[in-house]
């Protein structure tokens, strides 16, 4: 489903990624671990088309992402890749339902269909009674679930998560771990997760260890 071959990334004279190869199958949860500065987040951002590699090839569902630019790249990213970050990045002026719906509206889907799917996702994630609440009225765990629903709204091929439990307490972190497993089983959803959380890493289908810009195991 996703393949990357010999991915490199340089910032001036600093080489951050040194020829990374990765292959992820549909419905697989893959975690990327390693010390700070190993290149984990840089790799995730490149796989998610938020940044461009200095070299190498990346394919998602058979599409070479390097062939896409500008509006075509943004449209592909919105439709095929979902993102979850440590800080939820919800828009404070919108309620939970509206925050989840935004990527669907951007994709040009019918408003009625987007609203129906957003309601379904929020209910599935245990937020049926919180749809009309704005972010400031939600707990940290609830905000992260809204972010998960937003990432799922367009039925993406893959969800990229960068330290998704980094801003949660241990109870909410464990609940989010179980949620990822539920979504994999229920929707056959693919996840690539950068994390320092050992529990989340061990619950994944496969764990990749990065060191000095390479995957070493």
UniProtKB/TrEMBL annotation:
The keyword Nucleotide-binding applies. This is ABC transporter ATP-binding protein. Keywords: ATP-binding, Cell membrane, Membrane, Nucleotide-binding, Translocase, Transport. GO terms for cellular component: plasma membrane. Residues 2-216 form the ABC transporter domain. InterPro entries: AAA+_ATPase, ABC_transporter-like_ATP-bd, ABC_transporter-like_CS, ABC_transpr_LolD-like, MacB-like_ATP-bd, P-loop_NTPase. PROSITE patterns: ABC_TRANSPORTER_1, ABC_TRANSPORTER_2. One of its GO terms (molecular function) is ATP hydrolysis activity. One of its GO terms (biological process) is lipoprotein localization to outer membrane. It comes from the Bacteria. The keyword ATP-binding applies. It comes from Chitinophaga barathri. Gene3D superfamilies: P-loop containing nucleotide triphosphate hydrolases (3.40.50.300).
């Amino acid at each position: 489903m996703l393949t990357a071959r010999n991915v490199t990334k340089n910032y001036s004279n600093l080489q951050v990624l040194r020829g990374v190869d990765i292959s992820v199958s549909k419905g697989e949860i893959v975690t990327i671990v390693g010390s700070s500065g190993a290149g984990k987040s840089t790799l995730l951002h490149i796989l998610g088309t938020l940044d461009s590699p200095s070299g190498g090839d990346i394919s998602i569902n058979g599409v070479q992402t390097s062939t896409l630019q500008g509006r075509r790249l943004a449209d592909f990213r919105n439709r095929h890749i979902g993102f979850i970050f440590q800080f939820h990045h919800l828009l404070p002026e919108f309620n939970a339902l509206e925050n989840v719906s935004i990527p669907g509206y951007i994709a040009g889907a019918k408003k009625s269909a987007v609203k129906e799917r957003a309601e379904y996702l929020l209910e599935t994630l245990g937020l049926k009674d919180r749809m009309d609440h704005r972010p400031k009225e939600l707990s940290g765990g609830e905000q992260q679930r809204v972010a998960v629903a937003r990432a799922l709204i367009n039925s993406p091929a893959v969800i990229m998560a960068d330290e998704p439990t980094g801003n949660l307490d241990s109870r909410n972190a464990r609940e989010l771990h179980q949620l990822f497993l539920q979504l994999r089983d229920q929707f056959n959803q693919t996840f690539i997760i950068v994390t320092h959380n050992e529990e989340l890493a061990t619950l994944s289908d496969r764990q990749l260890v990065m060191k000095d810009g390479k995957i070493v195991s």
